[in-house]
From TrEMBL:
Recorded superkingdom: Eukaryota
Xref: CDD domains: Prefoldin_3
Chain coiled-coil ranges: 29-56
Transmembrane segments: none
InterPro entries in the cross-refs: PFD3 (IPR016655), Prefoldin (IPR009053), Prefoldin_subunit_alpha (IPR004127)
Protein name: Prefoldin subunit 3
GO biological process: microtubule-based process; protein folding; tubulin complex assembly
Encoding gene, per UniProt annotation: Contig8937.g9553
Gene Ontology cellular component terms for the protein in this record: cytoplasm; prefoldin complex
Gene3D superfamilies: 1.10.287.370
Family: Belongs to the prefoldin subunit alpha family.
Keywords: Chaperone, Coiled coil
């Protein structure tokens, strides 16, 4: 029972770590999706001046610079991970980001369900361990009483 308990606790720790990672990724995906939609809206403007985007960006710790970014290509680069960036059209990027957001939300819900199931199993295992311990104590007391009677 102790081995089973340790396995459950290990699995729970892994799932909690995965859930925390997903909770960090969700806001980033949402912000990226909003940024791509903003770029798409700006790109649809007729006036060249309204198409460009003025922004602040971080150069290094506590040093920011203002920049005017031209928005006339109709494309955006998305980080895929492992130092890989791929250029997509706005529509393609929005589709990919919405799909990623949906997948992340469903994985988070699934992980939460798995964690709840494991918590139930852990509680059951703890109760069983306590019962085994109590039975062992009871058996030792009975054995001790029987040995006293024999003497």
């Amino acid at each position: 029972m102790n081995e089973l308990y340790k396995k459950y606790k290990f699995m729970e720790a892994q799932l909690v770590r995965g859930r925390d990672s997903l909770k960090v990724k969700l806001p980033d995906i949402k912000k990226t999706l909003e940024a791509v939609k903003l770029l798409q809206e700006k790109h649809a403007e007729e006036d060249e001046e309204k198409r460009s985007l003025q922004t602040n960006f971080l150069i290094s710790d506590n040093i920011w610079a203002k920049a005017k970014v031209a928005n006339d290509t109709g494309k955006v680069g998305l980080w895929l991970g492992a130092n890989v960036m791929v250029e997509y059209t706005f529509d393609e990027a929005i589709i990919i980001l919405e799909k990623n957001l949906g997948n992340a939300i469903s994985r988070l819900e699934s992980t939460d369900g798995d964690i709840e199931y494991l918590k139930d199993q852990i509680t059951t295992t703890e109760v069983n361990i306590a019962r085994i311990y109590n039975q062992t104590v009871s058996n030792k007391q009975k054995t001790g009483q029987q040995e006293e009677k024999k003497q």
